[in-house]
Amino acid sequence: MTGKMLLKGSVALAKGAVDAGCRYYFGYPITPQNDIPEYLSEALPRVGGVFIQAESELAAINMVLGAAAAGGAAMTSSSGPGISLMQEGLSYLAGSELPAVVVNITRSGPGLGGIVPTQGDYHQATRGGGHGDYRLIVLAPYSVQEMYDLAGEAFRLAFRYRNPVMILGDAILGQMKEPVVLQGKKQQLEAGSWALTGARDRPPRLIKSLYLKDGEMTVHNWKLHQKYGEIKAKEARAEVDCPPCCSLVVVAFGSCCRIARTAVDRARRQGLRVGLVRPVTLFPFPEREIREAAARAGRVLVVEMNTGQMVDDVHLAVDGAAAVHFKGYPGGEVPAPEQILVEIEKIIAEGGLQACRR
Amino acid sequence: MSALAQKQVFKRPDCLKENLFHFCPGCHHGLVHRLAAEAVDHFGLAASAVAVIGVGCGVFLYDYLGIDCCEAPHGRAPAVATGLKRARPDLFVFTYQGDGDLAAIGTSEIIHSANRGENITVIFVNNSIYGMTGGQMAPTTLAGQKTTTTPAGRNPASDGYPIKMAELLSLLPGSAFIARVSCHTPRHVRQARQALRRAFQAQLEQRGFAMVEFLSACPTNWRLSPGQAVERLEHEMIPAFPLGIFKDY
After folding, report:
1. d(Cα B219, Cα A252) in Å, to the nearest integer?
2. Helices marked H in B145-240 — which ranges?
3. Which CATH fold topology does B23-247 show?
4. Is A346 a member of any domain?
């Protein structure tokens, strides 16, 4: 499909997935992401695909595993508590090296929390969340257009690296409406010589994550590590807007970055030299982009809708090359641009004017 | 008698690899593996079958069956099989699960797969104990049975009752064929073979969910000799888990 449409974020994501070749969806209802299964329950059968409302998130992620094992382009979606239940399956998908896309339209937590938007699942998404030594590829859209685009990108990456990919949205991105340009560019999601298709004219295949023989697991772990290294080298993405002689760089992702964007624009209109870096991939984390911007400005302000999670990755990326400040808004508190602007002004005032480092 | 007049009446099933089974002496998993291999051969499914393997002593099925296999997390084999079969309806998909896998941690997945009438076949091995983890109580452990976590014997008042999955699943409209069999005597093996063929046939005819529950001995964790274990199966397990066909399409 091509053209331009006014779409809700969740629907844009679901549409992007189908346009990219997704044919199998398995999920369990949870607020605030129900527009995704509701849309797909109608859209997938229309293109010869399969939609199943599973009995639980545990079942849903394992149905994804089964469809992926057969070489299918499969996805599920949920929100915080449901994503927690899927961690077992995510670990198995990673260990078995199967492609799959998992969408987290986050809500607040811990526990049942609330249905308001937060970014409290950053650690869970980027640190794996399930057991074992593995990584998810994590994409963070910040507009309805990106909800559509990154759904397709998620499937490309999942099949390219045989790895589960998570799209980390939130209730704002899921519910808001914006115009979306539909690409209609169907990609080839080809399963390789690993998919279970029946052992006709070839030796039987096995998809597994159990390695009991001496040394086998170590070999498998290093193999996965090497793959994650390749992903880090090739797939890290960030949007960087740092004019020359910035005295502060703001780092934010997802919907929070939309607000930070407004704050940065206002600061610039006041004559303050402020840059903005928005990670598009949370794993791999765009370390180089952030390190370079931070080293030039000397000061970084990380803004998140949580009590401080991505800031850990910023610290690792900056590695002492700049002072890292943090401002968090947890539990559904969505900051106004003025609040972030106050933080920007405060940090610049405290640090005083500094010579241009570049 | 000339060589030409000889007819081979018994052989290793074609899809059963020549690997030695890792199972303990007197365990019935090997027999159930063989029956599964025979059923695959019988219907000519070696090139289209996928086994989804649960966690337990049966997890190494892929070492013995020469067909495509997929490991599933503990209890989730019916969900994995659902995804596989829905993605590739032309494949023949069966699960191989133990009692802890199917009747404890995976009760939700097995009930809802049956209830959706998923066109899959389930091989369920019930030996009334957790074999691989060393003899703990299973959901199918008999009342009074001693295990490493019920050292005084299973007390239904605090530990619950042995769960009868065949009876339970036969109540669901989505199930097409449900049977409980044993393979502790040649006669029982023949009955089990027929039941498993019927359960395979159900999927080939797209009748919906089919399951065969195999009662099995676990001499090691029952702390009995293989001979004593067969006696126990006959006199204690079968009265608690009656054999028979509970549902047939």
Report:
1. 61
2. 156-159, 165-170, 186-204, 219-222, 226-232, 238-240
3. Rossmann fold (3.40.50)
4. yes
User: Can you give the length of chain A in residues?
Assistant: 358
Please tell me which of the candidates B69, B91, B116 has its beta carbon nearest to residue A206.
Answer: B69
pLDDT at A1 over 80: no
Segment A63-118, tens digit of pLDDT: 999 999 999 999 999 999 999 999 999 999 999 999 999 999 999 999 999 998 89
Q: Is the overall model pTM greater than 0.90, yes or no?
A: yes
Same domain? For A34 and A51 the reply is yes
Identify the bridge partners of residue A206 per DSSP, sorted by sequence position: B69
Domain tally, chain A: 2
Rounded to the nearest angstrom, the minimum Cα separation between B215 and chain A is 26
- Yes or no, beta carbons of B76 and A89 under 8 Å apart: yes
We report the CATH number of the domain holding residue A86 as: 3.40.50.970
Q: What is the CATH number of the domain that holds A250?
A: 3.40.50.920
B69 contact residues in A (CB cutoff 8 A) = 196, 204-208
The verdict on A152 and A257 lying in the same domain is: no
CB-CB contact of A134 with A128 (8 Å):
yes
> Do A223 and A149 fall into the same domain?
yes
Number of CB pairs < 8 Å for A and B? 136
Domain match, A20 and A93 both: yes
Q: What integer pLDDT is reported at residue B1 of this predicted model?
A: 53
| Cβ-count burial B40-75 (b if 16+ within 10 Å, e if not) | bbebebbbbbbbbbbbbbbbbbbebbbbbbbbbbbb
Tell whether B67 is within 8 A of chain A (Cβ).
Answer: yes
- Mutation target to probe the A interface, by most A beta carbons within 10 A, among B14, B16, B17, B50 is B50
Q: Kindly report, residue by residue over A63-78, the tens digit of the pLDDT.
A: 999 999 999 999 999 9
Strands A24-27 and A74-78: parallel
Residues A296 and A185 occupy one common structural domain: no
Note down the domain range covering A122.
3-192+208-235
Q: In chain A, what residues touch B76 (CB-CB under 8 Å)? A: 58-59, 62, 65, 88-89
Same domain, A163 and A262: no
